[in-house]
Amino acid sequence: MHGRRVLSPVLLLGAGTGEATCGILYLAGYLRRGGIEAFVRLYDGDETEEEVSRSLEALVARVRPRLVGISLKWFHHVHRALLLARTLREIDPDIRIVVGGNTASFWWRELHAFDCIDHIILGDGERPLLALCQGEPSPPNCVTQAPDGTPRRLPLEYVQGATNSEDIYYSHFHDIFLSHQDRHAFSGWVAPGKGCGENCLYCGGARGNQKAAFGRAKPFLRSEESVRRDHQEIAQRTWQFRYDFSGSSAAFLQGTWAGVDLSRHSCMYFLWGVARMELIDALAQTFEHVHMVLDIGCFSEQQRHEQMRRGLLKPCASDQQLLELIDGCRRHKNLDIEVSGIAGLPFASAATLEEEVRLVERVMSLDCLVGYQRLEAQPGALATEHPARFDMVSEARTFTEFLEYFEQREPGDVSVPMLRFRDAALERAVQRTSEHVDALARKHEEKKQRIALNGRTRLKNTAPSTLRFKLGDWLGAHRVPAKVAQEQVTVVRSVNGTGLACAPSVNPRKFTDPTLDQGEDGKILLTTLATFEQPTTVASAVAQLGAKLKLDPHSAREVIEHLVDGRFLQPA
Length: 572
Description:
Layout: E1 10-14, E2 18-19, H1 23-33, E3 38-41, E4 43-44, H2 49-63, E5 67-71, H3 78-91, E6 96-100, H4 102-106, H5 108-112, E7 119-121, H6 126-133, E8 144-145, E9 151-152, H7 173-176, H8 180-184, E10 193-194, H9 207-214, E11 220-221, H10 224-234, E12 240-243, H11 250-257, E13 266-271, H12 277-286, E14 289-295, H13 301-309, H14 319-329, E15 335-343, H15 350-365, E16 369-374, H16 382-385, E17 392-394, H17 399-407, E18 419-421, H18 424-449, E19 458-461, E20 465-470, H19 471-475, E21 488-493, E22 499-503, E23 517-518, H20 519-531, E24 536-537, H21 538-549, H22 553-565, E25 569-571
Parallel strand pairs: 1-3, 1-5, 5-6, 6-7, 12-13, 13-14, 14-15, 15-16, 22-23
Antiparallel strand pairs: 2-4, 8-9, 10-11, 17-18, 19-24, 19-25, 20-21, 21-22
Pfam families: B12-binding
Protein name: Cobalamin-binding protein
Keywords: Iron, Iron-sulfur, Metal-binding, S-adenosyl-L-methionine
């Protein structure tokens, strides 16, 4: 590299708990193809600062990274991104710490003030991050420092589009994960394209912010070949695929699926716009099961049309179009529908609230699920930046206000700042309706999933995947002491993706991990699943578990109900 200081290995983290954005997987593959040894931690279950510190110490000891990249895509992860950066700085002050993503690009000025962050990448990150790792003196898209010490944002040199993104695709999944558990946490996200051409008033990633943060004036589809490489890389490593891009036509997706057998996979498709039946037909004909999420903006047609008329909402289906689409989907037995909308959008009234409830009830009567949430404050969104235009108030608007909100959350709290109506009576009415619809949606979902059990109910173990690993391979060598690393873990996945990791031989007094069912608990779960390898009545299974495990009937039924709820056991 002509005397440059190459920064490798590299560790890439997501700033939130749960599964990180799939962006770090695209980055890791790109770095690997560029000669940089890159690793990812895709899933993070740490809640307390002590857990964060302990996990990062183990990761740093395992990877010994020269650079750590933190993906700050979502605004509600800003506090955690700073926590990760500060903790890494304390663990090893020599590690270069880089942040990037939508939120990092939006708040680059504020983030530059934190001395635990060395670099901020704006917009698309693949080429800039590789340039940093290769020691280039002037990497593109990076915030620089003016002579007086203030941050300086140079014009974006690297902007991905339809003609220069062929080298962005998934690769090296065999190499980038540090544990089988982390690889199994991957939910199958594929990005057929990038960007957004709409300016919805509630969204921080709308067209205007895309142009400002990424330099991208309009969305684009990636090349069929690069998306096909995604499918080829992950088809044998995931049980489902997830998409959320409105521009993908049936013909485009079918081209990206060519030569890849997806007939045993599930698919979840988040459709931003009005769905076309040929797309739905293609999904249903390709995948074993499809869950289609249709976003209609809000459940009041009057309110929806008013926002579209003002250019404040993407094109959404009318109620009649939605109902016709649902009716057309009925011919596919392997497809179910969820209709999603936001409550508390501007121009609400007593009449629109009544419309919301009527459409929700109609949709549920057609056996569709309902996704419903109140309007949240997103940095950069029109409604957040100018709430007074809509006679609303925002619980947070500035970087400091958002950061303080998230700093004060208790571990496990996933709340976000909200936008509320200035009119107190209207706000109370909107909140009452929201709570009522939430209750209806929960009751409907529980009813759809409930399986009535009695002693004569015949059940069968329908788990489509049962795998066995050594404990050190499953959790990762950096998390498991040598004395138990060779113990066996049985990993079971249900039909809806729920997972069990059972380690009956691992004594909790020697080693414990919250993601494992250990000792007697693990033995009970695996024995119960084995009891239902062939169709068996609940009464017979309760008797067998009593004889094999000395479980009393009440406890045996509780275990069976737990496995039914997780969809490991289904009616025979």
